[in-house]
Design goal:
By secondary structure, this protein is of the alpha/beta class. The protein contains eight helices and seven strands, in the order βαβαβαβαβαβαααβ.
Length: 259
């Protein structure tokens, strides 16, 4: 197959959790522009509606499913709904995650720890099990887990450590399931982004404006990542082009982790 044809996703269906904003929206756009039918999930109906309008205006075939994936039981119910509506999903991007608190470990409540672990890890297990598991009988599939460079390096200004711990576990989950499913045509890979300018980081910058310059100074390329810069890597991992890659977690960080 000619090299550029290996990146075409015509006839494939992709589910992107957290596809209504930030990195998820840009990965949805990339896969949709490559020809996939895209299903995006998010918790806020207004964000979903705006993303659908924007993607359709760009010629992307897209549907949306509203769900709060922060609770494992709700994630299971979400997967049942998705599988009923779209029985054949070929590509799953487990992108939902993040953290909205910054509390030191010695003060972090058990419930807050659990909430962050569920949002960054447990829902990815649930979606991989149910949506990824349904790919196995068809003997072709792609699961892409969005981890973080903080799976490998603690964040200097982060507190609580539940985020890094959950992302590190997501990396090992990626590798272990990749080994289990390698002979069955379903690859499982990950992306470990460094700092990207998304709403999540804009919020931290609003709360502490120096954060923007501190991060920029710590990146050899001297700038934050633009969300659209994750699209090509997601497309590679989602397509035939990455046919011999499984269990890899690719760092995408402008060189942040070199220093
Ligand atoms: N941005 C970075 O610099 C960076 C760096 C490393 C790793 N990451 C990882 O990359 C992923 C995306 O980050 P981002 O910065 O793009 O985040 P973002 O801008 O905050 O977008 C998050 C997306 O996830 C959805 N979402 C959040 N909580 C949800 C929930 N409980 N249920 C369903 N959907 C939910 C949001 O939908 P709503 O609008 O409905 O809330 C939105 O579509 C995360 O896993 C994050 O940890 C990001």
């Amino acid at each position: 197959m000619p090299i550029l044809d290996q990146f075409k996703l015509t006839g494939r269906r992709a589910l992107i959790t957290g596809g209504s904003r930030g990195l998820g929206l840009e990965m949805a756009r990339a896969l949709g522009e490559a020809g996939a039918e895209v299903v995006i999930a998010g918790s806020d109906p207004a964000h979903l509606a705006a993303a659908v309008t924007e993607l359709r205006a760009g010629g992307v075939q897209v549907e949306s499913v509203q769900a709060d994936l922060g609770m494992p039981e709700a994630a299971e119910e979400f997967c049942r709904r998705v599988l009923a509506a779209y029985p054949a999903i070929d590509i799953l991007i487990n992108n939902v995650g993040g953290r909205r608190i910054n509390i030191p470990t010695e003060e972090l409540a058990l419930a807050d720890w659990q909430r962050i672990v569920d949002l960054n890890l447990t829902q990815a297990f649930v979606c991989t099990k149910m949506i990824g598991g349904a790919m196995l009988p068809r003997r072709w599939g792609r699961v892409i887990n969005i981890a973080s460079i903080n799976a490998f390096w603690p964040g200097k200004t982060m507190r609580g450590r539940s985020y890094e711990t959950a992302k590190a576990a997501l990396v090992m989950f990626t590798k272990a399931v990749a080994a289990d499913w390698a002979a069955q045509g379903v690859t499982v890979n990950g992306i470990a982004p460094g700092p990207f300018l998304t709403d999540a980081n804009r919020r931290w910058i609003r709360e502490r404006p120096e954060f923007e310059g501190e991060v920029r100074a710590a990146i050899p390329m001297g700038r934050w990542g633009e969300p659209r810069e994750i699209g090509a890597l997601a497309l590679y991992l989602a397509s035939e082009a990455s046919s011999f890659m499984t269990g890899s977690v690719v760092v995408l960080d402008g060189g942040k982790t070199l220093w």
